[in-house]
Write a structure and sequence with these properties.
By secondary structure, the protein is of the alpha+beta class. Helices cover 31% and strands 26% of the residues. The chain has ten helices and 17 strands. The protein has an eight-stranded mixed sheet with strand order 1-8-9-12-7-15-13-14. Helix 1 crosses helix 10.
């Protein structure tokens, strides 16, 4: 059912102009890559990838907007401050000017950036939640030459590894020919990456995230705040930016300097990143896990563990506390209130989030019928 939903969402993207090019995860070459990964204890997650591209995705979304604008009412630039609940049933939402928008069904799909907002709404309305995870790591940047085999056969290599200190590390959001960028999350500057569809806009580098999953036991239940503090420390040390460090300097336990960065073979695509020392920012086990993962990846993509590879920090993926929901994604305790997507901690990516939204919509239609 999940694959059917993802394929349905993929079909919508195709209808609105997405590239027909998609990777085949079952070739002999990918089997060779998978075997090398298995030999060092790394799991390759095979998946089809249809790369939309930053600029093309904007065009696709614009076309979808044009298609919908005369079919549904859309309101932008209005902050939702609360949900309206009466006798355990949703009645609508309240926006910042005090106006109430009445609704028989409400879907909260607020994205990662809205995860804290969602948690506060749940707390206010006494919705039971569970949250014990956040992902903290770095954005890795290296030459396209090093990643050429992965880029040409998989586009995005999704690798999982269990480190010697017990943490799970994963590669995420790979961008062949991409650019490292900054993003603002609730006043904190984090690092991210993107790539264009137009080859003329591409760089000579590939970037991808290395994320370490952090699970917390009771009594601590504020993992997003934990990641927020770690990210804030990087901002302080870089005077409001993010830190970049050569892998070779990390291995030598020294900070990177502008001179060392300039002398390296990999030229940073994020020019405003400040050379520094990520060991002063990232927790010990997090840093150890990242270093261990890069050394292991060197057996799969030789050259990734050279001194010239760049690491930017901090990259963090924030998740909302999980509310208690049923198998229709309806919040337990508030009838006709649904949650979905990355912000609710249910998915980790565009295709899955889109599938989540379609699933909720179909369940609402089924309830009406």
């Amino acid at each position: 059912q999940l694959l059917d939903l993802i394929n349905y969402v993929d079909g919508i993207n195709l209808d609105f102009g997405a590239t027909p090019v998609i990777t085949n995860p079952h070739t002999l070459k990918i089997k060779e890559i998978e075997l090398r990964a298995m030999s060092v204890g790394v799991k390759l997650l095979r998946s089809k990838v249809r790369h939309l591209g930053t600029e093309e995705n904007l065009k696709i979304l614009s076309r979808i907007f044009k298609y919908l604008e005369d079919k549904i009412d859309m309101v932008f630039g209005k902050r939702v401050t609360d949900i309206v609940v009466n006798n355990g049933e949703i009645k609508g939402v309240t926006i910042e000017d005090g106006t109430t928008i009445n609704a028989k069904h409400v879907v909260l799909a607020v994205g990662r950036e809205g995860s804290d907002w969602l948690t506060n709404i749940f707390l206010k309305h006494n919705i039971k939640m569970s949250q014990n995870q956040v992902d903290i790591g770095v954005r890795v940047e290296c030459s396209n030459l090093i990643m050429e085999e992965i880029n040409s056969n998989l586009y995005e290599g999704k690798f999982l590894y269990k480190t010697s200190v017990g943490n799970t590390v994963r590669t995420f959001c790979s961008n062949p020919g991409g650019h490292v960028v900054v993003e603002n999350y609730d006043g904190v500057v984090n690092v991210n990456g993107h790539s264009y569809n137009d080859s003329k806009l591409c760089s000579e580098n590939t970037n991808f995230a290395l994320l370490v999953s952090h699970h917390f036991d009771e009594p601590f239940n504020k993992p997003n705040e934990y990641a927020h503090k770690v990210s804030s420390l990087a901002n302080q040390l870089s005077c409001g930016s993010v830190i970049v460090q050569r892998f070779g300097d990390i291995l030598l336990d020294r900070r990177s300097t502008r001179k060392r960065i300039d002398e390296g073979f990999v030229k940073p695509t994020l020019k405003e990143a400040v050379p520094g020392d990520l060991a002063l920012v990232l927790p010990y086990k997090t840093m150890k896990s990242i270093v261990e993962m890069i050394k292991v990846l060197d057996h799969i993509t030789p050259g990734i563990a050279t001194e010239h590879t760049l690491l930017y920090g901090v990259e963090a993926k924030y998740y909302s506390a999980h509310p208690e929901i049923d198998n229709k994604l309806e919040v337990q305790g508030i009838k006709n209130l649904f949650v979905g997507g990355d912000g609710a901690g249910l998915t980790r990516g565009l295709a899955q989030a889109g599938a989540c939204g379609v699933y909720i919509a179909r369940n609402i239609i089924e309830k009406k019928d």
